[in-house]
Amino acid sequence: MDLNSASTVVLQVLTQATSQDTAVLKPAEEQLKQWETQPGFYSVLLNIFTNHTLDINVRWLAVLYFKHGIDRYWRRVAPHALSEEEKTTLRAGLITNFNEPINQIATQIAVLIAKVARLDCPRQWPELIPTLIESVKVQDDLRQHRALLTFYHVTKTLASKRLAADRKLFYDLASGIYNFACSLWNHHTDTFLQQVSSGSEAAILSSLERTLLSLKVLRKLTVNGFVEPHKNMEVMGFLHGIFVRLKQFLECSRNIGTDNVCRDRLEKTIILFTKVLLDFLDQHPFSFTPLIQRSLEFSVSYVFTEVGEGVTFERFIVQCMNLIKMIVKNYAYKPSKNFEDSSPETLEAHKIKMAFFTYPTLTEICRRLVSHYFLLTEEELTMWEEDPEGFTVEETGGDSWKYSLRPCTEVLFIDIFHEYNQTLTPVLLEMMQTLQGPTNVEDMNALLIKDAVYNAVGLAAYELFDSVDFDQWFKNQLLPELQVIHNRYKPLRRRVIWLIGQWISVKFKSDLRPMLYEAICNLLQDQDLVISILNLFYFISFYLQYLETMFTLLFQLLQQVTECDTKMHVLHVLSCVIERVNVQIRPYVGCLVQYLPLLWKQSEEHNMLRCAILTTLIHLVQGLGADSKNLYPFLLPVIQLSTDVSQPPHVYLLEDGLELWLVTLENSPCVTPELLRIFQNMSPLLGMCDVDAIELFVFYFYHSKKW
Fold first, then answer.
1. How open is the CA angle 252-258-260, to the nearest 5 degrees?
2. Highest mean pLDDT among 214-218, 397-401, 497-501, 530-534
3. In terms of domains, do 102 and 190 share one?
4. Cα–chain center distance at 521
5. For residues 233-247, b (16+ Cβ closer than 10 Å) or e, as one string?
6. 153 and 20 part of one domain
7. Where is the Importin N-terminal domain (predicted)?
């Protein structure tokens, strides 16, 4: 492809490929696809996306086609591979100028350079790293930033390679450029700190962006660039310096507003500092040993003392807690029962941990976790008041909940309590003792404190097995609190329900269960609390006198709730109930049998909910036995759909559908023509060698004479 004559044609087709008109777009895409394997095509693309006078959308598309071409045709063994001559020209052109003015295009160019580096650096592209190093030294702000951006993506990509030979090359690279990377980071960091007090917002943001990028480079070099990093003074000097820099950046947050871009970048940089420590601890636990003491001192002071007031933010607290947790739980720091069998490195780390976690320190951490971090916030109380169902779904596994502060504090409490239970058990028991008896409903703070302590007692249930007489506590304290009907007591009643659920599988006498069932029957009338009760059903054995009431209330709940996750939860509980009482469920399932076809139709877009319906049907058929033939008008089409491999939902429904098919056959008094028609699905299933399908086939063959 001649570059001069081809550039105009390719540019025209790329312009057409950015059109919104499919009549123009489709032919252009087809033409570009044909050119992908033409010699010189990628040189033309390079000329187009480096020409800053052209339309941004056209340049963006040229970059994307170039990037995809690297994936498909850059390797020498690839079909229609690029020639070595063209690759040499392209490599040189990619690093000629780092002056791309558009951020999004600059990022894509940096990514595609990193893709080439993964395949060619350093053997076929030895000049890449030296060129980047020289380019990040220039005074021009744009060139410096773009070179630093590329330097980061190249380092990130090379650090991800896992073959031994590639790891050796990266070790050599890291040792060669680490000193420069540290100097670069220190320079940009010092510049930022100077500009915080005197510079403009644009200057602060520019220097902070460079600080962030250079720190990203150092993170990859530090974590992935050394076999024994603790033997490298520069590495350990950088890691120890992180704590100083963190304090400086946290103090800077006082001078930067809460609602601007600078604040966002500052918080990202602070979080990146903590990620360096967490990654290093994960990859090099013994090299981290000299940092254990300082990490714990820093994290505990900012999270559990007044030092952090006014400067910490939620994600930073989460990261500090994760750092404490990783040190506490790290198996590399846990000696064997026989100390003589432990390595000197393990014993040294264990000694540092034990010296730090003294009784006063552990007591303060425990009390602070419970009395500060476990307290329900005003926002949480409002959310629960307005939408109990949505709050419970979020609390038990919502995406935003997973990354929030509360579950992190609870996990840290569990880990520390497990590790130091002999020290912390008396502390928690003392907190329990101070909360005996009813709490004034007008004292909201006292109610929240009690909720927090109950949360801690539930989380530590297994550790407190020998220390808490839960049966007496249930009768004398918890049961009366479930009977308080004041509106302000609702959050505490919800917590008591959860607490019983935590303890019922640990320590709960069977003769107390009728009292619990009576309480549950009353609480199931309260829509705000009923979602919290569901987990209890997994642990209780049903007395038949409560079966009708509970089953009816659960069915009403299934109709009332709107969240898909909650409906699944209720269905699983209903399945659990049906499985446990088996044939004794028959008098009470009429309403459920009538409702399930409607729910199946409504859940057409929710395959996981349909899986829950299939599970419920499995237990229903087993409970109804031969009477399940009355369900065939609904049941057989469900089996037909679930086991038809030509239908997209089979990916989700097949396993449960096959089990439902089998139990339907097992409980069928005879084979009807409708049942036989489903066997048209069997041939493809046997062709897939599906074990459940083979079991079905064998069952049918064995019982066919009887039928």
1. 100
2. 214-218
3. no
4. 36
5. ebbbebbeebbebbe
6. yes
7. 28-100
pLDDT over threshold 90, residue 582: no
Q: In total, how many domains does the chain have?
A: 4
> Per the domain annotation, does 371 fall within a domain?
yes
Amino acid (one-letter) located at 418:
H
For residues 93 and 169, give the distance between their C-alpha atoms in angstroms, rounded to a whole number: 24
Average pLDDT, the chain: 89
DSSP secondary structure, 514-539, as one string: HHHHHHHHHHTT-HHHHHHHGGGGGT
Cβ-defined contacts of 646-649 (< 8 Å, 24+): 646/684, 649/607, 649/610
* 14: its two tokens: 């790329």
Q: How many CB atoms lie within 10 A of CB 283?
A: 14
Q: Report how far residue 491's alpha carbon sits from residue 446's, in angstroms, rounded to the nearest whole number.
A: 12
For residue 40, what are its two tokens?
Answer: 């010189």
C-alpha to C-alpha distance for 539 and 557, rounded to whole angstroms: 19
On whether residue 342 sits in a domain, the answer given is no
Domain that holds residue 389: 357-541
696 and 570 fall within a common domain: yes
Q: What is the domain-level CATH number for residue 46?
A: 1.25.10
DSSP 555-589: HHHHHH---HHHHHHHHHHHHHHHHHHGGGGGGG-
pTM score of the predicted model: 0.85
* 165 within domain boundaries: no
Q: Indicate if 198 and 156 belong to the same structural domain.
A: no
Read off the pLDDT of residues 504-554 as tens digits, 9 standing for 90 and up. Answer: 888 888 888 888 888 877 777 666 666 667 666 655 555 567 778 778 888
Question: What's the longest Cα–Cα distance across the chain?
Answer: 93
Residue ending a domain, among 287, 302, 336, is 336
Q: Is residue 44 domain-resident?
A: yes
Angle between helices 141-159 and 201-224 (to 10 degrees): 20
Backbone phi and psi for residue 309, each to the nearest 5 degrees, phi listed first? -65, 130
The structure tokens 């896992």 sit at 162
The amino acid at 99: N
**Cα→Cα distances 506→48, 265, 414, 453, 500, Å:** 69, 47, 16, 18, 10
CA angle centred on 638, ends 553 and 648, rounded to 5°? 115
Query: Would you state the structure tokens that stand for residue 278, as one six-digit string?
Result: 């967490």
Which among 619, 618, 636, 642 has a CA at the least distance from the CA of 672? Answer: 636
- 3-state DSSP helix/strand/coil percent for the chain, to nearest 5? 75, 0, 25
* Whether residue 208 is found in the same domain as residue 113: no
DSSP state of 138: S
37: three-class secondary structure by DSSP: coil
Same domain for 12 and 50: yes
In this structure, the answer to whether residues 152 and 195 fall within a common structural domain is: no
Q: How many helices (H) and strands (E) does the chain have?
A: 36, 0
- Evaluate whether 541 touches 576 at the Cβ level (below 8 Å): no
Structure token pair of residue 346: 């393990």
Which of 160, 191, 206 is at the close of a domain?
A: 160
Q: Are residues 390 and 485 in the same domain?
A: yes
The SS3 of residue 417 is helix
